[in-house]
Amino acid sequence: MFAVAIDGPAGAGKSSLAKAAAQELGFVYVDTGALYRTVALYLLEQGEDPGDPQAAQAALPHIQVGLEHSPEGQKMYLCGREVTGLIRTPEVSMAASKVSAIPAVRAFLLELQRDLARKNNVLMDGRDIGTVVLPGAQLKIFLTASAEERAGRRVAQLEESGHPADYDSILRDIQQRDYQDSHRETAPLKPAEDSVLLDTTGEDFAQSLGRLVSLVRERL
Ligand code: DC
Q1: Looking at ligand 1, which residue's alpha carbon is closest to its atom 13?
Q2: What single-letter DSSP state applies at residue 138?
Q3: pTM exceeds 0.85 for this model
Q4: 3-219: CATH, from 1.10.3290.10, 2.60.40.760, 3.40.50.300, 3.30.460.20
Q5: What is the β-pairing status of strands 81-82 and 28-31?
Q6: Could you tell me if the CB of 38 is within 6 A of ligand 1?
Q7: pLDDT digits (tens, 9 = 90+) for 135-189
Q8: Ligand 1 centroid to 25 CA: how many Å?
């Protein structure tokens, strides 16, 4: 099996690029952020504080995270119920960032991620894929763009899907999540030593996709 680990901050375009590259290469695209989001949704629905390690640990035995790969992308299930759309709210984003700092939650999701890479050629995106989940990945990419560029792209994306968006609050959210994700003790966001840096600031989607696909093809 061949694994491509793609890590980087929120809004760098990891998921849309990895999804498109996977399609071009015939790989399975795995969005690991969706796993943390699903755990976060469970805690929010139970009225628990997603940043409380005790509450999370007590909840884990009751949480069943399922994922399915379909032509439209990765579908997520929480205890058998489809939650693919529900996990995309700003509230769940912030809660996911908090639950992802809890070591027990990371341990809970680790084997699920490794198992997917054992069974499929994957492009897996997240924060610690190259450093922790798949340290033996054949290619590791650290995908990034400036916070301002990422906020601008998110605003455009939201507006395209009919949701009015406020640039300043989105930029603040991105900066806060960057800080939380890179300063936590367990598996902080940082480039793996042997990763290739792909900075997409100022590039359009097609340029970044072209660079990503070429990097994979060079290693295949
Ligand atoms: O990529 P995303 O925005 O859907 O991720 C949601 C949160 O989960 C984000 O704050 C960081 C965290 N995350 C993580 O800690 N490790 C991963 N492999 C993927 C996501």
Answers
A1: 33
A2: S
A3: yes
A4: 3.40.50.300
A5: unpaired
A6: no
A7: 999 999 999 999 999 999 989 988 998 988 999 999 999 999 899 989 999 888 9
A8: 24
